[in-house]
Design goal:
The complex is a heterotetramer of chains A (162), B (372), C (152) and D (328). With 162 residues, chain A is an alpha/beta fold. Chain A is built from 5 helices and 7 strands, in the order ααβαβαββββαβ. In chain A, the strands form 2 sheets. Chain A has a 5-stranded mixed beta sheet, with helices on one face. Chain C has 4 helices and 5 strands. The chains are: A alpha/beta (162), B alpha+beta (372), C alpha+beta (152), D mainly alpha (328).
Chain lengths: 162, 372, 152, 328
């Protein structure tokens, strides 16, 4: 039930276009909403949005009563992109896990902060900034959280050499 | 690192709780701006035991990563390894024999009871009562002995394997577990009389540190913290995995939102875990403990996979992004206490320091698990 | 006003119940083990550091295939072998013989991957837990030497 | 005159020795008792039953270096431990252990002990302020407010006893209760029917006055590290420790004299110092037992208990006793 309404709401951001699955297409997928097989993937909805659509997508989830699970990044060095992944889930028995992802160029990794919507995103964004160097525009306190205060390296980047 | 102490015109002062402080149970630091005994503002400083487990996940094969998981949370390690093996099995499509899943569920629940017992003792010790810790450790010792006889380790277990288990349980374990359940129930009654009913204890917790359900949602709090705020959320029920649908158990939920509610949730959870263990021992089927069809080296198909499990501290999630290699391309660990601890900064504003530290105890923090 | 006195009454009662429990515990026997003076037997599956297993002749069963070395997550096993000529049924054959098996126990996480991956049953966990030292070198074990010492 | 002076010196030496020995072996008893409650053996390696532990601990403390934190107020820092110990020893001087055993009996013994007891708060304040540690300051402020608020109900109940006896002389109070346990002040009498409640109030107050759990807010080791003596090591810490235990002994002695008949035998025969010691050690055992059973109260819980429960009840008791004394 909530799955369909959320899917429709997110779909509205893309004017109804459905992207191809990258595993089948063999190329990076385009922006859009995909439904995933829960049994193999462990989540239901997978939406890739543009960085400037992010706040709209997260607001949909906030209004839908989702809670934030985590935020993380992936370094796609071959495509010269950084991906930010937002996980959302629900407290009720209408199990629906939603993954929001957005890709930004590696040399200019800036996405808007969602800590204005979800206060709990604060630390997750700081952690992602620590590990990937992704800047969250508008974040109130973007200083290293898990790494030392003077850390100027980003260990989870694929070209990081210790 | 921190700014030099400057007495502001409004005469607040900065109090450094941690990294070495008896109440933080590990190397956690909270910078508190205090007005007398009242907290004006708190800022948590993390990372003192950060070990970059996620990078290790990229450099090790899936099997080699198994011991890392139990180093996250040394009190309830089995829950975390369970998450990892389930995630890999889900992605690789490995069918796990029923017996293995039952044994996993039994051992995870035993570990959950052990973890809650230790939390119980440590929490009461935070409040100044020392003896309950010793009683809790005695009961926990029985669990550790049982788990040691099966897994070979007392805390940092590496027992589950992809497709099954390292080795089967023997009759001694089943006997010991059956003996343990009534003894533990008796102990729970004792704890109830000694601690839960105690007027000093109740006065310290009742109505202290309210965390609303909305706040839990915004911060992503899970586990007993969410359930103490009236949220009926338990991954074992909401997204059933393993053999949990076969068990009959309740999810304790309290609507008071205070520290006492979080305490009660955990105390009730121990009873529910005992119920699961009881049923598990009864239903334990015969059969193999290792999947027959299992590749020698595990390579996951391209894609990303998520698995959530309910550990003693809340919903632990593991995300594996695979590029088809034998190592993960990216491995993210979503630790429950990370989100639960995040609440603290906002919730403790305006609280007395002794209430705040009791609140911190009621969050059940394990620092290595926050810092990863 | 009635609440005032009932609060005092029930509060005091709960305190007395608590004292009753600790009073009973006072007379129960102790449950501790006086460690250096008393020890307990380690369970059969206890995982100490690994140890080479000898065959009937007292030689290590190990064939130096290196599976354990590859399986180890922390890289704490290093082994080496030499080829020696041995006579089997009158023919001279080359055979790999283990010449070195070092374990760096400081890195070991006792996961059991090495024991599990050994196809020859040549290594197993020891039951040793009395390992304490202030020097790192004390945890670099030469397992071949230890095997010889056990044989002697 | 010179004989009296000598008497006093001997008495003070004996008092110090008694306080020190008590402190040392009460620590041992506390550790053994706590261990038994928690089903462990406690100190049992040094000597039979671990009886050599206290002197060895003493030697350890004395051989350690006394560290003074940088920026601390040296004078206050050094004075505080002495100030914690000295009044406790002084109080011993006035306590009659038996009819004939008292260093210096005073007619205003009750007053003297309360006067000395309130100096303990000063020691804690000095220690907290002098160590230049925020935790210490917070703890000492807590401890002082606690001491101040618990002195009131304690004094009021003591006055109730003094009124029924008609004397502030500890010896006279004790003598007035002789001749069997039914004469003790703990049991209700015609003039003061609420005496058992007074006894409980006095007992709770002496727990709070000595900063013992569950009222150990001055120490609060899980919140304020070690409270006012966080920065103390060596014998500075040792003196605080001894002072704490000496205060416990005094609290127990005072409770015994005021309520439990002093050195009186419960059956009205063979009164003696042994009865006195038995009674105080039973009370101290209860102190220990309580400490290892309960969690710590909050500061507001503690003050509420004093101002909302103990003080009204003890005041009511005082008025009732005064009225009944007038009537009968």
């Amino acid at each position: 039930m909530i799955l369909e309404t959320t899917q429709q709401a997110l779909q509205a951001l893309f004017a109804g276009s459905v992207p191809a699955d990258e595993a089948e297409a063999g190329t990076p997928r385009g922006n859009g909403v995909l439904t995933r097989d829960y049994k193999t993937h462990g989540y239901h909805l997978d939406a890739q949005v543009d960085a400037n659509q992010l706040l709209a997508a997260v607001t949909i989830l906030d209004e839908g009563g989702f809670f934030i699970e985590s935020i993380t990044g992936v370094d796609w060095i071959k495509e010269n992109q950084l991906e930010v992944i937002y996980d959302f889930s629900r407290y009720d028995f209408d199990a629906c896990r939603v993954v929001i992802r957005t890709r930004v160029p590696r040399d200019k990794p800036v996405v808007p902060t969602i800590s204005t919507i979800y206060a709990g995103a604060n630390w997750h964004e700081r952690e992602t900034h620590d590990f990937f160097g992704i800047k969250f525009a508008g974040h109130p306190h973007l200083v290293p959280l898990l790494l030392p205060d003077d850390a100027d390296f980003h260990p989870l980047l694929k070209d990081f050499k210790a | 690192m921190s700014a030099p102490i400057q007495l502001r015109p409004d005469e607040t002062f900065l109090l450094n709780v941690g990294p070495q402080h008896p109440a933080t149970h590990g190397v956690l630091r909270v910078k508190m701006q205090m007005d007398g005994e009242y907290i004006v503002k708190a800022e948590t400083v993390l990372g003192y035991v950060h070990r970059m487990h996620e990078k290790m996940g990229e450099n090790r094969t899936y099997a080699q990563y198994l011991p890392n998981l139990s180093r996250l949370d040394y009190l309830g390690a089995l829950g975390y390894t369970h998450g990892h093996v389930l995630a890999v099995e889900r992605a690789a499509g490995i069918e796990v024999p029923e017996r293995a899943e039952y044994i996993r569920a039994i051992t995870v629940e035993l570990n959950r009871v052990a973890s809650h017992l230790f939390w119980f003792g440590a929490f009461v010790m935070d409040l100044g009562g020392f003896s309950p810790l010793m009683y809790a450790i005695q009961d926990r010792e029985h669990i550790l002995d049982m788990l040691e006889a099966v897994t070979g380790a007392r805390l940092t277990y590496c027992y589950y394997r992809f497709g099954g288990l390292y080795n089967d349980v023997d009759d001694d374990f089943i006997e010991a577990a059956k003996r343990f359940i009534p003894r533990m129930r008796k102990s729970l009654k004792k704890y109830d009389a000694l601690v839960s009913g105690n007027v000093i204890f109740r006065n310290r917790l009742e109505g202290i540190a309210p965390v609303s359900a909305e706040m839990c949602r915004k911060y992503g709090a899970t586990g007993p913290v969410a359930r103490g705020s009236g949220i009926n959320f338990d991954v074992r029920k909401n997204e059933p995995y393993s053999v949990y649908p076969e068990f009959e158990f309740d999810v304790p939920v309290y609507h008071e939102c205070d520290s006492l509610a979080r305490y009660k949730v955990r105390m009730d959870e121990m009873e529910q875990s005992l119920r699961i263990i009881e049923q598990g021992l009864e239903k334990l089927p015969d059969g193999p403990i290792m999947a027959e069809k299992k590749p020698k080296t595990i390579k996951l198909p391209v894609g990303d996979y998520y698995q959530a499990v309910e550990t003693a501290r809340g919903s632990f999630g593991i995300r594996i992004v695979s590029d088809g290699d034998k190592n993960a391309y990216r491995l993210k660990l979503r630790s429950p206490t990370y989100s639960n601890m995040h609440l603290f900064d906002e919730a403790c504003e305006g609280m007395l320091i002794m209430d705040a530290l009791a609140f911190m105890g009621s969050l059940d923090l394990v620092i290595p698990e926050i810092d990863r | 006003m009635g609440g005032y006195f009932s609060d005092i009454f029930y509060g005091s009662k709960s305190l007395l119940i608590g004292m009753g429990i600790t009073f009973r515990e006072f007379f129960k026997p102790t449950v501790t083990v006086q460690y250096p003076y008393q020890t307990i037997k380690m369970s059969a599956r206890f995982r100490g550091h690994i140890e080479l297993i000898a065959d009937e002749e007292g030689k290590p069963k190990c064939v130096a295939c290196g599976m354990c070395q590859r399986a180890c997550p922390s890289g704490c096993i290093s082994l080496d072998s030499v080829s020696v000529d041995i006579e089997v049924d009158g023919k001279v054959k080359k055979k790999k013989v283990l010449s070195k098996y070092d374990l760096d126990f400081t890195k070991c996480s006792l996961c059991g991957q090495c024991v599990e991956n050994c196809n020859f049953g040549a290594i197993d966990f020891s039951k040793e837990y009395n390992l304490a030292s202030t020097r790192k070198e004390d945890f670099h074990f030469n397992l071949l030497k230890r095997l010889e010492e056990r044989n002697a | 005159m010179s004989l009296t002076l000598l008497n006093v010196i001997v008495a003070v030496v004996i008092a110090i020795a008694f306080a020190a020995a008590n402190a040392a072996y009460l620590v041992w008893a506390e550790r053994r008792g706590a261990a038994r409650i928690q089903r462990r053996p406690g100190p049992n390696i040094n000597g039979p039953f671990g009886l050599l532990q206290p002197p060895l601990d003493g030697i350890k403390l004395m051989t350690k270096q006394l560290m003074i934190p940088g920026g601390a107020d040296k004078i206050l820092f050094m004075v505080a431990p002495v100030l914690a110990m000295a009044p406790a020893i002084m109080s011993f001087v006035t306590i009659p252990f038996s009819e004939g055993i008292a260093a210096h009996n005073m007619e205003l013994g009750v007053l003297v002990i309360f006067a000395f007891a309130s100096m303990g708060a000063m020691a804690i304040l000095f220690a907290g302020w002098g160590s230049r540690n925020k935790y210490s300051v917070m703890a000492s402020v807590r401890a002082v407010s606690q001491n101040v608020s618990y002195e009131i109900p304690m004094l009021i109940t003591a006055i109730t006893v003094v009124m029924t006896t008609g004397s502030m002389d500890l010896k006279a109070i004790s003598m007035a209760q002789s001749g069997g346990f039914w004469h003790w002040n703990i049991f209700p009498s015609l003039h003061s029917p609420l005496m058992p409640i007074s006894f409980i109030i006095f007992f709770i107050c002496s727990l709070a006055e000595t900063n013992r759990a569950p009222f150990d807010l001055g120490e609060a080791e899980s919140e304020l590290v070690a409270g006012f003596h966080t920065e103390y090591g060596s014998m500075g810490f040792g003196l605080f420790f001894m002072g704490e235990y000496a205060n416990i002994v005094i609290g127990a002695s005072l409770t015994t004299i005021l309520f439990l008949g002093g050195w009186d035998c419960p059956f009205g025969m063979f009164p003696g110092v042994w009865w006195f010691l038995l009674k105080i050690y039973l009370l101290i055992a209860t102190f220990i037992w309580i400490r290892w059973t309960f969690p710590r109260t909050t500061i507001y819980g503690l003050l509420n208990l004093s101002w909302k429960i103990l003080i009204p009840i003890s005041l009511f008791n005082l008025l009732l006793t005064a009225g009944l004394l007038k009537v009968f």
